[in-house]
Amino acid sequence: MTSGVTLDDIKGNAPDDQKQMCIGVLDFYSSLKDHFAYSVGQRLKLLEVSVGPMINKKSQAIVVCEISLEDDMLNLLGTLHGGCTAYVVGPCFACSSIAIAIAPQGVNNPEEWWGKVSVSQALNVLYHAPARSGTTLRIVSETIVLGGRAGTIRCEVSTFISDQINSCYTLARCIVNRDANTWFFVAGVERSAREYSEFAKDKAHSTSVTGAYFCT
User: Fold this and answer.
1) Residue 69 and residue 61: Cα distance in Å, rounded?
2) What is the 3-state secondary structure (H, E, C) of 147-182?
3) pTM score > 0.70 for this model?
4) Which of 62, 114, 142, 203 qualifies as a FRET site for 210, CA 20 to 30 Å off?
5) What are the backbone dihedrals phi and psi of residue 185, each rounded to the nearest 5 degrees, phi first?
6) Can you say how many angstroms the Cα of residue 143 is from the centroid of all Cα atoms in its chain?
7) Structural domains in the chain plus CATH codes
8) Contacts of residue 78, Cβ cutoff 8 Å, sequence gap at least 6
9) Across residues 21-43, what is the average pLDDT?
10) Which of 47, 8, 3 is CA-nearest to residue 27?
11) Which residues form the Thioesterase domain (predicted)?
12) Which residues, listed in sequence order, are joined to residue 66 by a DSSP beta bridge?
């Protein structure tokens, strides 16, 4: 494996096929040698993939990763760069959504992901404390709402030793080309009144759940 992670390395109660799909995500990021932040992506390690009980008829997934905080992730003050944290949580968000939305469909070949994966729609960030070079970051990604058209995923980045939360992310994701009744949530694309109304309901629900998480 490009990322160096095998099924034996991953904890959690998720089936092996779902864990394997998450490994595929990290392998993808680890293979982008000519792309942005390659040296960072290749250090990301997958620790756990768990699937929780059905809540309100929706599946739940938790993905835990870790990464060593090194000089290529720092800002001018010697702490974790905000933009780098946004990049690091991306694969974790992807693993959470893939474990729920893609693997159960029997799509095991990464080449078949396109048309079934999701894209980022909005990213809300709360920075709590700086993280310094030499520490290990734990990244916990948890699905809040993940439906057929849109979903929300919450992610916490904390130092591995002290469990001090450094930043919280909440990501709204939308599914692209999921089935024959394709929904494109892209700026500038015309939508019918019914489509816009249903999309607005999904978005409002995601926002309310997000607020509850940050207020508790």
Assistant:
1) 25
2) CCCEEEEEEEEEECCCCCEEEEEEEEEEECCCCCCC
3) no
4) 114
5) -95, 75
6) 9
7) 7-215 (3.10.129.10)
8) 132, 133
9) 82
10) 3
11) 78-158
12) 45, 138
Q: Which two tokens stand for residue 150?
A: 């849109």
In one letter, which amino acid is 192? S
Tell me the residue type at 37: A
Task: Kindly state the tokens that stand for 135.
Answer: 């520490």
Residue 128 is encoded by which pair of tokens? 């709590």
What are the structure tokens assigned to 138, written together? 């734990």
Which amino acid does the sequence have at 199? Answer: F
Q: To the nearest whole number, what is the mean pLDDT of the chain?
A: 68
Token pair 């999309």 is at which residue? 199
DSSP per position, 68-100: E--GGGB-TTSBB-HHHHHHHHHHHHHHHHHHH
| CA–CA dist 156, 98 (Å, integer) | 18
pLDDT digits (tens, 9 = 90+) for 15-29: 888 888 888 888 887
